[in-house]
Structure formats: structure tokens, C-alpha cells
Amino acid sequence: MARIVRVEALMLDLVPKVKRVDAIQSFVSQETPIIRITDADGAVGMGYSYTIGTGGPSVMKLIEKTLGPALIGREAGMVEQVWRDLLFLTHATTVGAITAIALAAIDTALWDLRCRKAGLPLHVMAGGAQEKIRLYTTEGGWLHLEPAALVEDALRQKAAGFGGAKLKVGRPIHEDVARIAAVREAVGPGFEIFTDANQAFSVDDAIRRARHYEPLDIGWLEEPLPADDVEGHVRLSNATNLPIAVGESLYSHLHFRDYLQRGACSIVQVDVGRIGGITPWLKVAHLAECFNVAVCPHFLMEIHVALCAAVPNARWVEYIPQLDSLTTEGMTIRDGYAVPSTEPGLGIKWDLAAIDQQTVAGSRFEIKA
């Protein structure tokens, strides 16, 4: 092993390729902190995380002033130990989004470094359970789109081999039903339709809507309620036969424990960029496995493809390309399946020149031994 001697960080601000509107917001920006960690042997690992347009500078400042300096001199291979120590160091701001996002950038970089030194791809280093994962798409299902556009996109994705598509819900009930029904009629019974409410409903509204959605054979109802309302999710899960999916807005592995113990969800959508990195992501995935619950992570497909292939209970990867302008090669897709990279590390081929060009002015810093 070798100790950490340098931490470099910068932030990008990526604009989505398409207009993204859901029941509570319009996604107009992805602030993307990127971390490079170098050990005494000269090995380098790169990691990243993201925000949806706000909080990025706060994440960077936490890394610069607190977390980055604490990395210097630590054994780079002791990833679990480092993650736990950083979590304790920030206990006054944990559990919280800013801290979890900062930890995620660091932890993914440490895993990248660890895998590269071992000469193994992430999906093997973290478990090696699957060779490919089924893909569904979200980019054609945003709430502002009309039924004809939803149908057109779903048919296109089905023809491309994708196994399903996600539709945003949150319009008046009759409109939601009409939109889902139009897509179901077009794609037939062999194509999954997932729905996502983005935490927009109250419990009574969610129960009512679920009963209207049930005859349309949807794969899950995602984030129907605010993420901190575990009891509401219990009531909803007991009132419907629809699978209830949660996780993209949970920032601690212990929160998933509460959901699973209470039977408040049946799909776990843990997001590596929000849970605090690969280390806690794997804890959640294996915890869900113990409850016979599938993992279908939110966003960040470029890293989730490897993590899903690392565990046996991962079922879907969400197709939302966002790193194309920062990489020299995209995620491998074959016949509607995401295939993890066989190269050592996270499997992301960063374009360093493109990253330099798109770095937010004043965001770059370096910490050395």
C-alpha cells in the first residue's frame, strides 16, 4: 500500500442534453465535482459526484477545507477505514446532502485508485456477480411531453432493445392515466413502463393514484411521497399491489434499513453520488439482498453499470447519458443491456482536455503533503 500525497479537485457545470421537467422541478444544471487522488507510488484515482444545480460550491469548500486535508498521509488502500473516519469527522453535518455528495466524490476516487493498483475492473473488485444489466430509458418520458412524444420515444427505445421506459407522473390523474395508457397500448405487454412522481404526492393522493395506475401494469411507482415519510410509504405499500421504489433522495445507508425493515418499499434506487460513495452503496445493495429486494439505482449510469454488475440483486440501469462531453468513450450497450468495462478502475474513460475546458472558473484547488 501507499499513502495519499496529493488531492486535486475541480467542478464542472453540465447542461442537460434535453429539457427535463418533473412534478416538482426543472433539471437545468448538473454541478459535477471531480476529484483526483494520488498516492506515494504515483497511482491516481478519479472520482466524482453531482448536484442538481445548487450546492456545488458548498461541496467543493467542504472538500477543500475539511475532507481533502484529512486524506493526506492516509493509506489509500484502506477505503472502508477512510470512509468511516471521514464520516465521523463530519458527524456534525451528517446526515446531509452536502456531506454525502462530498464523500461520494472522494470514495469513488479511492475505489478507482484501488482497482487500478489491483489491475481489476470495479465490477469484479466489488463482487463480480453479473456480466450485463438490462437498460431502461428516462430521457423521453419527462412531464412536459405530450402523449405522442412519449409513444414515439418508447417505440424507438423498444426497437433499440431497451427493456423499458420511465414516465413522469404528477399531472391530474386522468392525464397521467391517459399518458401511461397511450404508451402501454403502443408498446404492448412485453415492455416495462415505470412511473416517477418525484416526491410530489400526499399519502391519500398517492393511494388514489396507485389504484388508477394498477390496471396499466406499471413496473413501479417511484418516489411517490417525500423521502423522509417512512410511515407514509408503509401505508401506501399496504394499500397497493404496485412495487414502490425509493432511494434517490436518501443520503444514509441507515435510512434504507428503516425502509426495508418496515416493508415501506419493494425497489431500492440507491444513488452512489448521493449515498456517500461506493462503500455505502454496496452496504445498501447487500442489505436489500437480505430482504430479497432488487436494486435499480438512480442516474449516474456510467458508474452504476459496474456496481450493478458487482451485486446479484441489481435488475436495471437507468439510461440518462450525461458524461458524453467529458469522456472519450461511452458506456457499452449491447442488445439493450449495459455492459461493464473490463479495464481496471471505474470504467470511465475521462477526457482530461475536455474537463479542463469545462471547469468552472475558480473551482480548482490542490492539496499536497
UniProtKB/TrEMBL annotation:
It holds the Pfam family MR_MLE_N. Gene3D superfamilies: Enolase-like C-terminal domain, Enolase-like, N-terminal domain. Its cofactor is Mg(2+). CDD domains: MR_like. Residues 147-243 form the Mandelate racemase/muconate lactonizing enzyme C-terminal domain. Keywords: Magnesium, Metal-binding. This is L-alanine-DL-glutamate epimerase-like enolase superfamily enzyme. It comes from Inquilinus ginsengisoli. The lineage of its organism: Bacteria, Pseudomonadati, Pseudomonadota, Alphaproteobacteria, Rhodospirillales.
